[in-house]
Structures are given as C-alpha cells and as structure tokens.
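Section 4.2 – Deliverable D4.2 (structural model, holo form)

The reporting period included a commitment to supply a predicted holo structure for the target in complex with arginine. Inputs used:
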Amino acid sequence: MCPPEHFTVDYAINPWMDTSVPVDSGLALKQWAILRDTLTDLGHAVHVIDAKPELPDMVYAANGAFSVDGIVYGARFRYPQRAGEAAEHRKFYETATKWPATQGQSVNEGEGDFAYLPAAYGGMILAGHGFRTEPAAHLEAQEILGRPVISLQLVDPAFYHLDTALAALDDRHITYYPEAFSEASQRVLRQLFPDAVIADRVDAEAFGLNLVSDGRHVILNTEARAMGEKVRAHGYEPVHVELGELKRGGGSVKCVVAELRQ
Ligand code: ARG
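Output (structure tokens):
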C-alpha cells in the first residue's frame, strides 16, 4: 500500500475524476489508515511504500505490478502522469521481496487489469483490455508468469480496469458485473465460472467489485452494502470500510492494495 499523502485530482484520466472538486487529503489519509489497520487486524502483513509528491495517483498501488508465484510482471502505465510509478514498485520488489521483476514492454496497469485464481483450472489469470492494458500485455504476462491468461474485453468506460468489474472471492470463485464486458467475454466468463456471484450496475457503481478478499473476509467500501449482502449470502464475511475520498480518483479498496503472491 502507499499512503495518499500527496493525493489530489488535478488531472482526469477516467470518468470518475472531477478536477473541479477539491480532495480532502486529511480525510483520504484517515480512511486509508483504517483500511490498512483493518487488513493487519485480520492478520495480514502490510508493506507500505513511500508516496512521491509528483505522483498523486500512487495511492492506487495495485496498478504498479502483478505478481504470481513470486514472479513480478511490472506495469507500464497508459498515461504519462502515472508513468513514474512503475519504477517505484520495481524498487520495492527488488529490495523487499527480492522477487524477479520484469517491466512489461506493452502497456499494462498491473493488478488493475489482472486477477489470479490459483485453484481455477490449476491456476488461471484473468486479464482485461479495452481502456488501459493492451491485449499484447496479456501474451507477455503469460510468457513471463507461465500461467494461462484469459483475455476479457471491457466495454464501459466507467469500468475501465478489470478490478472495477470483476474480483476473485477466493482461490476458485469470482464475482463480476456482466455488462462491463463484451458479449463474447461474458460468454467466456459464464463458461469458466458458472457459479460466479453476479453483481449489478448499482454494485459496480458503488465500487462493490473493487474488493479484496482473503477467501473468507471480503473487504469492500461502505457504499457497497448490497454487494456486501450478496457475498454474505455466498458464505463470505463482508467487512466494510469507508473509502469515499479515494473514489474521487476512480478507485476503492482493491485499487489501493497490491497483493503479493508467492
Ligand atoms: N486515478 C487512477 C487512474 O485513473 C485510479 C486507478 C484506480 N486503480 C484501480 N486499480 N482501478 O489510473
């Protein structure tokens, strides 16, 4: 995670960002700290990387890389405003985890557009394209990580990253908002995950799919109450945290947590 010490909305690179409404950075920091404490209280180890003043979106740490089996596929950001974040994340992996890290040649925004299901079909990566990550990055990720990658096309600009439209609930199960995907990609998802928890537009707009799950606890923002009840009905325990200030940048729980997969 990376604290929102320098978080602002001074440019708009997704439909949620409105540069005319000032960000309350003190509130953003408080909300972020509660999320970090929630994760540690649940028994998870949280590493924190330093925020850089010139990189206001760095709080969305999930976009910096995607790791599977202790191998790191580093991001190459779509927009110049975020380009500098990639090297900060690579530095973290080099020093803290010592996992081999390769920066992508193709544009890819890390876990923003990649999800991993270790127990689905022996270990499967789901990857989004359409707004940020290039399809070529999906091939690159497969070659670097050695796991099958299923490409899914995102079609709604409000859900510009895979992690705004789909999430892993545990090692084998997903939840997603079908209409965020092309018809063909919806068919692919139905075939591979017939038992998925289906979310609706209200859930997606509340960033209810932008969740982090440890397989038992599903951490999601307070606005996504209905989504919380949906996952509860499927045997998970929803844990809500207030993260409204970070929604101004177009992200929520998942966007601010990069998961380390050994
Ligand atoms: N303002 C950031 C951007 O548009 C938000 C990134 C949200 N992160 C995510 N994983 N969806 O790039």
